[in-house]
Amino acid sequence: MAEKEVKLKINDEQLKGAYANQVGIMHTRDEFVLDFISMLPPEALVVSRVIVSPAALKRMYTAIGINIKKFEESFGTIKSDDMPLSNISDKVN
Length: 93
Known about the structure:
Helix content is 28%, strand content 27%. By secondary structure, the chain is of the alpha+beta class.
């Protein structure tokens, strides 16, 4: 079966993007909830919430791995922080 080309659209607001330096991940049997967070102490702000199926997240995980590998082949190894993840309150205001 031939793949169909999909035309990707993005509105002006989404085109600007949102800065996130943390992610909070929750899941149920049927879905994953990804809260992308801008952590600028003393405050953390959820800038986007994405809800996906387990199968979709696994495809994204694979795509991210492929792209990290390509990035590191071009620019060198990405160094991870040795710092533990910040403790973010479960409360969303």
